[in-house]
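Thread: "does anyone have the structure for this chain?"

Original post by V.I.:
We have the sequence but no experimental structure in hand. Need at least a predicted one for the grant figures.
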Amino acid sequence: MGSSCELRTLAVIPARFASTRFPGKPLADLCGRPLIQWTYEAAAASGVNDVVVATDDARIIKAVQAFGGEVIMTRADHETGTDRIAEVALARGVDVVVNVQGDEPLIPPAVIDRLVALVATDTNTDMATAAVPFSISGADPADANAVKVVLGQEQQALYFSRAAIPFCRDGDAQVAPLHHWGIYAYRREFLKRFVSWAPTALERCEKLEQLRALEHGARIRVLVAEQSVQGVDTPEDLEAVARRVSQSLQQ
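Reply from O.Q.:
Generated one for you, tokens below.
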């Protein structure tokens, strides 16, 4: 790991053992290594200064320590992953914090670096995230689980929704939403403010916590990525990722 800029950077990977669709997911075996290890090593290959797993489960602590990663036990009562990473990040002297989802073992390290750069080079940007065209992700824009984002002229997020946005009234406007990718980079001071705010009306409505930032007037820059990354939400997803990993190892 090296420094991607003069600012001190930290990637935090929130990891919970409990999961409705996939209990124990961070420890699921992916080609001989736990899922969390793949994500950790991908983050460590980026330019951030440090990577740490934030968890509330002793089994995840043991697994991360076994492969030599840094891990911290956090409180068990956090409502969101953002609250969990804030507990870790705000106790450290860092400038930029990246929230890397623990169930994305194939995340390109370059995406992490590009998000850090967006926050580090623009003092008007509070946080940054990523999105890809639906033509690349292959997801169905009509699927409520596929979060959509529409952008302004300067690649800033205007709105995130589970609904199909925007609504083209006359049916002929060539405007398409992007498929949001749930990785975030925050300025430390903004993260501190963000977790101090109560959930907002739009956030509660859509069940999307990034709307809390928009409702408070935050500027969210969006990196439009050229490739999509398959996350692991279910055991079936894990099997699909394992096939991709096996194919790449054989090449």
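V.I.: this helps a lot. The chain has one domain: 9-250.
O.Q.: and The CA atoms of residues 135 and 212 lie 28 Å apart.
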